[in-house]
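Sample intake sheet
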Amino acid sequence: MAIVVPLEGEHGKRKPKPSLDSLLALVKEDLDKVNNVILRRMDSKVPLIPQLAGHIIASGGKRLRPMLTLASARLCSYEGNRHVNLAACVEFIHTATLLHDDVVDESDLRRGNATANALWGNQASVLVGDFLFSRSFQLMVEDGSLEVLRILSTASAVIAEGEVAQLMTSNDTSTSEDAYLDVIIGKTAALFAAACHVGAVVAGRPAVECEALESYGKNLGIIFQLIDDALDYSARQAELGKTVGDDFREGKITLPVILAYRRGDDEERAFWHRTLEDGEQTDDDLAHAQTLIEKHRAIADTVERARHYGAIARDTLGIFPDGPVKQSLIDVIEFCIERAH
């Protein structure tokens, strides 16, 4: 398990809060090109497609995954342009999965805004998601690399498997931490891993560097989802302007619930059975769930798990030379963890 670094710096001064600013500054020029590719490629003679796709693409996401592709390519000293289209491809895959996820979860809000399915209905959302997946595969084929096609198409399949696995573990309080980890590796970490991996591949780097960046992305994706799942039960989520308790209402079994369930007594487990397995929830149940999770330090320990994977992600970058790009990727690790605070 990674050592927790105190937030206080030398002479008691508080460290600055981690951000994506350094990464964004390094890739801004390329990211502008990615955004142009996205706008061009989501165009269609069917007006609803760019309208609906544009709604979710513009709904406040940080473009973290495509930025990772751009930064990975730069870390590997790549000087061409292939990474731009592939970063757009990664964003299309991500956006397509969001559209489908909101339909599956029957979500009405995403990042405080109405979801596409709430505005245009489930059928349109699913079909536009399919359109974006198709666009992503067009970009893969146009790149011309079978290895790139293998990496990104495999990631797309693994994401779908992860979502189905999550469906199978929903409402099942007997879900193990290992099974949960398999779910988040599939539904989230696989695309982070692929986004970083292709950055090294287009640069023609040796296998050891490609594998290092793939591992970095995978562990970063695990961190990202662990913290997302912790935030869903945290007051911090409300401070960020996001809905608290979506996972609870949907009966999702995430690590905070797994830990609280395992550490609880019979009465507490009966509560989780009623609310998550039987789906019988009252207006007061979310607050009680948060109380139990706090009682058993489930959020704090979920963050500790994230720090562990953060240490692994940081170590994978050790083979690359020090510099601003490497440091920005290290900063991303800290940013993803510190979202919980």
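Comment: The mean pLDDT is 91. Strands lie at 109-110, 113-114.
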